[in-house]
């Protein structure tokens, strides 16, 4: 990929955006951070950055969501129903496509990170994986046959409802579902339940049992989609609490109880693994999104000949 | 598709197999049934049928599972860890590919039915849908961008564990998970719980509440994958009990609680719909599997030129 043309990669986050001119982790030419404020201010600042760059062949954008990735829909390329003030129904992908005459790839930040981990990180060489981030929210992105798994929209599997540990009837914090996985196991859920931030909570605090149990059912559900050859785990709650991973592996095995029989699932230590790219997964994933948009346009041009 | 070349389509079921020479529902040239007995006897009988047919351009096979659809694996094309006596580790797809010099498409019967419903049935014209069958087992297949959603293996989402209705602690019948969706809502689950077969159970029997609740969480999980523009429902339990569908729509809406906002989800009457092809979905889906294998080989040949 280092011989590949550079991509203008954008990661749009809740508090900051990263713009990166790169064709891979060994070929990062520029990297600029812009605070996420109002949409017009933020997107104009990113355009000013890109205006100063030359020679990018495509743009890739991984954005906080929800976003519309439905090319059959008039709102394609928008950030849609976000509660983030001012950002609902913000045109992102079509705006950049109109300004720069290059293909634009657009997806969620989570799917971007999944693509980045699949190309250069903990899923290197795999055509199918899941990436799960457990932090302020819980997001899951899946890649199959090298492409994002999507259709009507992107995955929101952090919001599945799961069975509860016996005797646990805490109501959870998700405003939509109460005790869905995000409502039980995200950073804000842990803080609401214990009064202590996840990164400061003792490893033997009993609240971790409920967190691990909820996350394990999410892992099992991802396995039961049939897609991932590996699940890559990131986000502050998991990165900050390395004691969770062995527990999560054991609990996932218990939830599946031997049901799916494939060699990849025999060893949970190689099936459930920590992310490798850290904060780089987002912008590097956006590089992949841009490269895929470029390849898609090239394919179409070839077919037309 | 009626101008398309005929496909030799095989649906391998637990009690019978269907062989169909067809290019679509309006172009069915032959249809033969063969009982499912021992593998060698059954597959030889199907080969004898295909030996008598001429001019098929590809073979499509939708099989009871689990099957290996992993082209990176040595067991690709096998029925794998089935409890069906004699059928574990049976080579199916490679056997037919070796005997006939045509492309062979191979997947589960459920994904086959999903493809059939997407092409000619209740999902006609949709590039993304889910098909769920509720009968002896509970199977879910998803199609995205016109292709099966898979990776390591095929979906087994009938086995997800779900929250229970308050006060319901019946243990369920799944030998792996007890009260997963299949353990709570399949035909054998209903019979075990009530002593009455699903098709004979009164519409106002209280056991239906638990069945609908479990199925609604499966529907919500499918929505949260982001894939389906519609969910198509088949199988004996749902077909035989039309009173379930309105309840299932209401319970699915309750489980999601407005979380995913897309126009397709606004009207549950057009989002959760009955299958249209009935028993034809299986063999017609196998026609699509064969046609896709043919198109894939043609693409590869074109790329090589």
Write up what this structure looks like.
The structure is a homodimer of 305-residue chains. Chain A is α/β, with parallel strands linked by helices and 305 residues long. Helix content of chain A is 35%, strand content 20%. Chain A has two domains: 7-112 and 279-304, ATPase, nucleotide binding domain (Nucleotidyltransferase, domain 5, 2-Layer Sandwich); 125-275, ATPase, nucleotide binding domain (Nucleotidyltransferase, domain 5), CATH 3.30.420. Chain A is globular and about 60 Å long. The first copy, chain A, has helices spanning 39-51, 93-99, 109-120, 181-185, 187-194, 207-224, 236-239, 244-256, 268-271, 281-304, and strands at 7-12, 16-24, 27-35, 58-63, 78-79, 90-91, 104-108, 129-134, 138-144, 147-148, 231-234, 272-274. The longest helix of chain A has 24 residues, at 281-304. In chain A, strand 1 and strand 2 form a beta hairpin. In chain A, helix 3 (109-120) crosses helix 10 (281-304) and helix 6 (207-224) packs across helix 8. A five-stranded mixed sheet of chain A has the order 3-2-1-4-7, with helices on both faces. A five-stranded mixed sheet of chain A has the order 10-9-8-11-12, sandwiched between helices. In chain A, strands 5-6 form a two-stranded antiparallel sheet. The first copy, chain A, contains ten helices and twelve strands.
């Amino acid at each position: 990929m280092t011989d590949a043309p550079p991509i203008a990669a954008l990661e749009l986050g809740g508090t900051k955006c990263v713009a990166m001119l790169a064709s891979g982790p060994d070929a990062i030419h520029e990297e600029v951070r812009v605070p996420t404020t109002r949409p017009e201010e933020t997107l104009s600042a990113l355009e000013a950055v890109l205006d100063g760059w030359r020679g990018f062949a495509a743009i890739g954008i991984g954005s906080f969501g929800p976003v519309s990735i439905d090319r059959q829909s008039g709102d394609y390329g928008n950030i849609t129903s976000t509660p983030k003030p001012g950002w609902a129904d913000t045109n992102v992908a079509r705006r950049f496509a109109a300004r720069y005459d290059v293909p634009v790839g657009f997806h969620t930040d989570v799917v971007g990170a999944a693509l980045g981990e699949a190309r250069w990180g903990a899923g290197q060489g795999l055509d199918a994986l899941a990436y799960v981030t457990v932090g302020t929210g819980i997001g899951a992105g899946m890649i199959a046959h090298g492409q994002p798994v999507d259709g009507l929209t992107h995955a929101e599997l952090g919001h599945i409802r799961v069975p509860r540990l016996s005797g646990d009837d805490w109501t959870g914090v998700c405003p939509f579902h109460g005790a869905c996985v995000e409502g039980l196991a995200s950073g804000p859920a842990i803080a609401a339940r214990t009064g202590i931030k996840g990164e400061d909570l003792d490893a033997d605090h009993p609240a971790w049992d409920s967190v691990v149990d909820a996350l394990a059912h999410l892992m099992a559900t991802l396995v039961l989609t049939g897609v991932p050859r590996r699940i890559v785990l990131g986000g502050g709650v998991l990165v900050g609490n390395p004691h969770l991973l062995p527990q999560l592996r054991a609990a996932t095995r218990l939830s599946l109880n031997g049901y799916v029989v494939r060699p990849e699932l025999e060893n949970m230590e190689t099936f459930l693994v920590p992310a490798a790219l850290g904060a780089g997964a987002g912008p590097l994933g956006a590089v992949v999104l841009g490269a895929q948009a470029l390849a898609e346009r090239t394919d179409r041009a070839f077919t037309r000949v």
